[in-house]
Write a structure and sequence with these properties.
The protein is mostly helical. Helix content is about 40%, strand content about 0%.
Length: about 100
């Protein structure tokens, strides 16, 4: 079982993600997605991994790691980091994305 991230963890990660993407301009503010636009939650094939230029989790690199895990909302973090970088208002952080969607913790 993995727990959801707290609103405070998401808020800090959004700021960190925006800062890292601005400091390293070759790093694209995106995450690995499948052909349907859903987050990839497994190791990327070596050819794809070597060509990838965005944000990744440990499970994209190696098979013996599971973080950030199934509770992590890539879209929430990346979308809000992109908004922060563009000077747009962020989504409210009153609830974690899973809680706001009514998903079990």
């Amino acid at each position: 079982m993995q727990y959801d991230f707290t609103p405070q963890q998401y808020a800090a990660l959004i700021k960190l993600t925006a800062a890292v993407c601005q400091i390293f301009p070759k790093l694209k503010c995106t995450y690995p997605m499948d052909e349907h636009g859903r987050p990839v939650s497994h190791k990327l094939p070596d050819r794809e991994l070597n060509a990838y230029e965005g944000l990744i989790g440990h499970y994209h690199i190696q098979t013996n790691k599971v973080d950030p895990g199934p509770a992590f909302n890539w879209d929430y973090v990346v979308t809000n980091a992109q908004k922060l970088m563009a000077g747009q208002p962020l989504a409210p952080a009153l609830l974690s994305p899973r809680a706001a969607a009514g998903l079990p913790k």
